[in-house]
Amino acid sequence: MTTPRLTVLGAGPGDPELLTLKGARVLAEADVVLYDALANRTLLDHARPTALLVPVGKRRGMRSHGQDEINALIVDYARRYGHVVRLKGGDPFVFGRGREEMLYAEAHGLLTDYVPGISSAVAAAGSAGIPVTHRGLSEGFRVITATTASGELSGSIGEAARDTRGTTVILMGLGELPRIVAEFCRHGHAATPAAIIQNGTLPQARLVTGSVAELPARAAAAGIEAPAIIIIGEVVRLATPEKLAELPALYAEVA
């Protein structure tokens, strides 16, 4: 019997070719793969034919496995089969609860390991030509989530709205776009360049840009849906819409 163990693996931002070489090797060694909804299913081709593939995806507005249930599955499958790989979109340590799952596994006697993934916070923006830092425009960036565990608007949104010298990247924020925009406008940043990128790095990627104040109407008109990231800052002016698929109808120049 293989020693029960867990590897938390980052699937990257969507493009399956952005999986790391180490990630591909780990998938090939897995006895069980528990994969999220945001992990590209193509990545499962790296797994052995005999591996057990279990979807445990969590998406807004859809029935999903709770975190406690996922934790219990990790331990159960590891004890029964050996090596469990937890495949999570982006990087598991960027709002992915990856370390939380590792700590639970360790508390139940499992060996654990972590394999980083490319975060959508940087890669999705870059795929549209938007760097999170750029000389003369942004000397730093912050990556935040829109809401707290209780569903309240994150205090980090207000902090970012008060200080827009760098770039703000907001993950899992599309459902809170009106409240986010209201906060930035309240602090005098209605005219700051902003963008939303849906399905960044994938062939069906979509981009909307405009000022902060214009963003909700433009996103609604374009039918933008999750998964998407929000980018606020002067670097949005560098967007290269030709890099994305459906640009003529979806791209709007920042004034």
Estimated radius of gyration: 19 Å
| Spatial ordering of strands, largest sheet | 3-2-4-1-5
What separation lies between the terminal Cα atoms? 63 Å
Question: Residue-averaged pLDDT, rounded?
Answer: 91
Please trace the helix and strand order, writing H or E for each element.
EHEEHEHEHEHEHEEHEH
Number of continuous helical runs? 8
Summarize the structure.
The protein has 255 residues and is an alpha/beta fold. It has helices spanning 21-29, 67-81, 98-107, 120-127, 155-162, 177-186, 215-222, 247-250; strands at 5-10, 32-35, 52-55, 83-88, 111-115, 141-145, 167-171, 193-198, 206-211, 228-232.
How would you describe this structure to a colleague?
This protein is an alpha/beta fold and 255 residues long. It is built from eight helices and ten strands. The protein has helices spanning 21-29, 67-81, 98-107, 120-127, 155-162, 177-186, 215-222, 247-250; strands at residues 5-10, 32-35, 52-55, 83-88, 111-115, 141-145, 167-171, 193-198, 206-211, 228-232. The N and C termini lie far apart (63 Å).
